[in-house]
Amino acid sequence: MKRTSIAVIMMIAGLMPAASSIAQFQRTFTRQDTLRGTITPERAWWDLTYYHLDIRVDPEAKTISGSNTVRYRVHTPARVMQLDLQPPMEISGVTQDGTPLGYERDGNVYYITLVKQQVPGEYNELLVRYGGEPQVSRRPPWQGGITWQKDANGNDFIASTCQGDGASLWWPCKDHPADEPDSMLMTITVPGHLTDVSNGRLRSTVENSDGTKTFTWFVSNPINHYGVNINIGDYVHFGDVYQGEKGPLDCDYWVLRDNLEKAKVHFREAHRMLAAFEYWFGPYPFYEDGYKLVEVPYTGMEHQSSVTYGNGYANGYNGNDVSHTGLGMLFDFIIVHESGHEWFANSISNADAAYMWIHEAFIAYSENLFLNYHYGKKESAEYVIGTRQNIRNDRPIEGIPGLNYPGSGDMYYKGANMLHTLRQLVGDDEKWRSILRGLNSRFYHQTVTSGQIETAIAEMSGLNLKGFFDQYVRDVRIPVLEYMIGEKELSYRWNNTVRGFAMPVEVLLDGEPVTLNVSGRWQRLQLENPLTRLTVDPDYYIASFNLTGK
């Protein structure tokens, strides 16, 4: 098919000169971006219900081969189905009810021509055979693919990572976040001296006559595609039980043999994480599948019910504190952050890559909620304010729907500071907690858009938040509180904002707390005494500017 491209230019007025804006925000999209990011007609007519991924992993050849059974429910009659698999992986055959089917490839997309009549309401399945040498991840998890490494004892140490790049890097699937299987079976065959750890619960381990072993894992809940993983190594296992809000939660830990004793001590952090997040967000979302930490040859990732860990059994993030305050060294960043994604990313999942900020903003914010629970509100505020040093304000934290294009990396800490500011607007901490828990109840095991999350928060808070979210999610500018100090008068307004932005802010007027209800129009506050100093509450992520120079 003919390749086309779309030039998308996003200009943020008032942030910088126009030419600079064009250079910074221009991005060219290809037909493949559209095919990956859009609910195409060949995707829209069927609802994914189940996968059975049955593969053999060969560390020596660095290949993956096998099959994926795709079960689905028919919405409307159709003859062509879109599945995704990225080169150099290739589909070698497709059958339905034993009948071979024809297919054509367009880059990362396979169009499969069906023979059987597709009757609305019926459940059907395809068997897709495939194989090849999957892309090698050179910088996991930031670049997707398979990591083929060795541990200190020379054993193979293998892992998959594919957020952003897509699960179709290593297995054929309906690679769009809006549709998730309701359950999934994974049958992974590896060399006999190794162990595979994947999502959900281990159903069986079989020793094969050819010297390999087959591990079968089952996920009984909906799972996002990038959350599916394989982890292969010389693993040993231990576990415990967390007494959570929904009863006993099985916690399993799979680590390299040499790290067993240190892991038994360090992984106690998992219970501290669960206590904090069940308090703030509600019950762990996957009691049926259990909770796992799995050691891997990279820093870590939020794979559903199979959270991966490679942070060196130490606090901080690779030995560093992302908040620059010292408070980040009070907890293991990977255990807290990546496990937090079980709530926001794995249970509540974005319906389009453009809305990935929902995953990252809430879970970057969860780091300071963890501190709030275990150390106090003052410490948690200091932490999240410290992370502002990481914000670039280069482009909006929401991306462009339909193009597999997420927003800026600022979705982490700009997103966290947006939510911290929103907590101030809500005011009551218990109400704020009820909002966070309410989101996890309302959108339990669902895919969502920005609009759904924003509307739900507005409804539960009773606040008009349209301008707030337009400002912090879809614009790069930080609101500026402009003010002028007169003899016994204070004038103030918002500048550098979207149209209609209005937000109250707490300030100190010569040390006295005052709430200013600020809009884009100049307002005046009459004072009893001359004012010498205005100080903005640092919990609000804004800037301020004294036009009088005092």
Give a quick precis of the structure:
The chain is built from twelve helices and 31 strands. The chain has 550 residues and is of the alpha+beta class.
From the 3D structure, determine the CATH topology of the largest domain.
Immunoglobulin-like
The biggest beta sheet, please? Answer: 8 strands, mixed
Give the strand tally: 31
Low-pLDDT sequence parts = 1-24
Number of domains: 4
> Which word captures the global form?
globular
User: Any idea what the CATH superfamily of the largest domain is called?
Assistant: tricorn interacting facor f3 domain
Name the helicity range.
Answer: 10-25%
Summary tags:
550 residues; Immunoglobulin-like; eight-stranded mixed β-sheet; 23% helix
Report on the structure:
This protein has 550 residues and is α+β, with helices and mostly antiparallel strands. The protein folds into four domains: 1-37, no CATH class; 41-233, Immunoglobulin-like, CATH 2.60.40; 348-474, Orthogonal Bundle (Neutral Protease, domain 2), CATH 1.10.390.10; 480-546, Immunoglobulin-like. It has twelve helices and 31 strands.
